[in-house]
Specification:
The chain has 16 helices and 27 strands. With 602 residues, it is of the alpha/beta class. It folds into three domains: 184 residues, Rossmann fold (3-Layer(aba) Sandwich), CATH 3.40.50.880; 202 residues, HUPs (Rossmann fold); 179 residues, no CATH class. A nine-stranded mixed beta sheet has the order 2-1-3-4-11-10-9-6-7. Strands 17, 18, 19, 20, 22, 24 and 27 form a seven-stranded mixed beta sheet that branches. Strands 14-13-12-15-16 form a five-stranded parallel beta sheet, sandwiched between helices. Helix 1 links the parallel strand 1 and strand 2. The two termini are 41 Å apart. It binds xanthosine-5'-monophosphate.
């Protein structure tokens, strides 16, 4: 099969490039960035991905120089763009003034080759602090932005292209057109499809499992169900044993619903284990999100191993099956050069060890959610199962924030004052909130405070979107922005010592259930990709209580996301319903895109 190689320099979107190419029905493989050129001879085109490093650092990853002599088209994206210029003698340097994060307008200077059929001006998506500071010889500028003269460059003779922006994310409007143009330049045949994936994967499962059986951790979500169906197709349902663990962090009445769905999807071998007491016990007094994730992930394995013992299964006859998808691996820092954003429950150390021992099977580990859904549809799973909103393995545990006490970073009052001076003319005021959440910026994890914006009259989402992005980019101590759902005069804020308890989870379950029913009632469920409801131990104007944060997002594959601009009247009605819950002192709405925020708060 004709194929394209994506050299992975550790960027959060490296693998997304391969996903996009597959969408264009061309087979694409991710390979290590330091692969020798001779191993790339069978590829029709080569792409250098983005990455978190700086090309001018001695230790940063470089590509084999001989790749430039292979005679196939080459495309460098972000770090890859800088590397391409650097390998040909151009200066690359850090330049704070020229860094660009988010949507940026680019003037197309030459609508040829990679830029064939583009408009004179295109919206592209940037995330960089380093820049290409001079044009390599033999190259022309094909696109410039206000801050980046050499935002896109081309050597038409060799078919080498470099772009500072990420053409693989959906925010770059003509990104797919550019990729299609690149594939045309590579003269590659369109031979990849979902049907082909299923066919190949079934064969691969048969080969890997041999005469063993698979013990599968299932959650009722689309990923583990699709993985289960693939395994069952390859091995027969009786050789796939499903374990559904109730951690205590499921949604309201979720256990019953999941059991029903899984049985309907053909799980004949299903075992349900209520392990909620073990989970609450293990998480007593834990505040740190990464520690929480580790404990939850490790406990999944412990519970599974206990069941193996109880059932007297011979561990040598069984493999562990998981519905891991690609973002779980990349965000956990699980590819060679990627930074850790957060540890997904199926990527904790104990599992990594089993993977090394060859004892884990993950049939959809290379796919993104949109591809998993296509596989599910192709294999005949019901629509409501395939299109369920994603729900994370650690469940409500990562939506129930824990804190020991209030936390403000050093110098926060000065930053808050500066922000307020700057936005005074808009009629909006800002407060830095005394707790933290996880974010992702420039391929790195952040753990910072949110900024609460108090909007006085009409909700103009476009303006809020721009303002939120700008304020987060300019102020390093914050990584999220929120707005009030109803105006509240904040006199005092308290953060009470809180960890995961059944009482707090019950309150969150109730809030989450109100939200879930509300979006279905109002028929906006399908417009939203995922809607985390977060409980924060932040009490507003009262000594004891909590805050609900609404985090609806639109996304395609979870690597990037935009906040969902909910209608004001709906937002207010939802807020009023949530405020009726005992113990809720405020409801805020998250207006952060990903990046700089992550979808989940922890
Ligand atoms: P973030 O918060 O990283 O989330 O933007 C991206 C997507 O991944 C889901 N998520 C998880 N899924 N195990 C999972 O199965 C996990 O540990 C986990 N953490 C985050 C999240 O809900 C979103 O869809």
């Amino acid at each position: 099969m004709d194929k394209i190689a994506v050299l992975d320099f550790g960027g959060q979107y490296a693998h997304l490039i391969a996903n996009r190419i597959r969408r264009l029905n061309v087979y694409s493989e991710i390979v290590d960035a330091d692969i020798p050129a001779e191993k790339l001879k069978d590829y029709k085109g080569i792409i250098f991905s983005g990455g978190p490093q700086s090309v001018y650092d001695i230790d940063s990853i470089k590509a084999d120089e001989a790749i430039l002599d292979l005679g196939v088209p080459l495309l460098g994206i972000c770090y890859g763009h800088q590397l391409l210029a650097f390998m040909q003698g151009s200066e690359v340097r850090h330049d704070k003034q020229s860094s660009e994060f988010g949507l940026t307008n680019m003037k197309v200077k030459k609508a040829e080759g990679l830029f064939k059929s583009l408009d004179d001006e295109e919206v592209v998506w940037m995330s960089h602090g380093d820049i290409v500071a001079e044009l390599p010889s033999g190259y022309e500028v094909i696109g410039s932005t206000e801050k980046g003269e050499w935002a896109a460059i081309a050597n038409f003779e060799k078919n080498f292209y470099g772009v500072q922006f990420h053409l693989e994310v959906t925010h770059t409007k003509s990104g797919m057109q550019m990729l299609q143009n690149f594939l045309d330049l590579c003269q590659v045949k369109k031979e990849w499809s979902i049907e082909k994936f299923i066919e190949n994967e079934v064969k691969a499962i048969e080969k890997k499992v041999g005469d063993k059986k698979v013990f599968m951790l299932v959650s009722g979500g689309v990923d583990s169900t699709v993985a289960f169906v693939l395994l069952s197709r390859a091995l027969g349902a009786e050789r796939v044993y499903g374990l559904f663990v109730d951690t205590g962090f499921l949604r309201w009445k979720e256990r019953e619903k999941v059991e029903k769905t899984l049985r309907n999807a053909g799980f004949t071998n299903l075992h349900v284990k209520d392990a909620s007491n073990e989970y609450y016990e293990a998480l007593k007094g834990i505040f740190d999100p990464e520690l929480k994730r580790k404990i939850i992930g490790d406990l999944f394995i412990e519970v599974q191993q206990k069941i193996v013992e109880e059932l007297q299964l011979d561990p040598n006859e069984w493999l562990l099956g998981q519905g891991t998808i690609y973002p779980d691996t990349i965000e956990s820092g699980g590819t060679k050069h990627a930074a850790k954003i957060k540890t997904h429950h199926n990527r904790v150390e104990a599992i990594e060890k089993l993977i090394e021992e060859g004892k884990v099977i993950e049939p959809i580990a290379q796919l993104y959610k949109d591809e998993v859904r296509k596989v599910g549809e192709e294999m005949g799973l019901p629509k409501e199962m395939v299109w369920r909103h994603p729900f994370p393995g650690p469940g409500l545990a990562v939506r129930c924030l824990c804190a020991k006490e209030e936390f403000y970073p050093e110098g926060y009052a000065v930053v808050e004052g500066k922000i307020n001076d700057e936005i005074e003319k808009t009629g909006i005021s800002a407060r830095i909130l005394p707790l933290q959440s996880v974010g992702v910026q420039g391929d790195y994890r952040t753990y910072r405070n949110p900024l609460l914006l108090k909007i006085n009259d009409s909700l103009d989402w476009k303006m809020i979107n721009q303002l939120a992005t700008q304020l987060i980019n300019q102020n390093e101590i914050v990584n999220r922005a929120l707005v009030h759902c109803r105006p509240v005069e904040i006199e005092h804020m308290y953060v009470n010592e809180s960890f995961l308890t059944p009482e707090r989870i019950e309150l969150l379950q109730k809030a989450d259930d109100i939200v879930d029913n509300f979006i279905k009632e109002n028929k906006i469920n399908d417009d939203i990709w995922q809607f985390p409801t977060v409980l924060a131990p932040l009490s507003v104007n009262s000594a004891r209580g909590e805050t609900v944060i609404l985090r609806p997002v639109q996304s395609e594959e979870a690597m990037t996301a935009n906040f969902y601009p909910m209608q004001k009247a709906l937002l207010e009605e939802l807020c009023d319903r949530l405020m009726e819950l005992d113990g809720i002192t405020a409801v805020f709405f998250d207006v952060t895109n990903k990046p700089p925020g992550t979808i989940e708060w922890e």
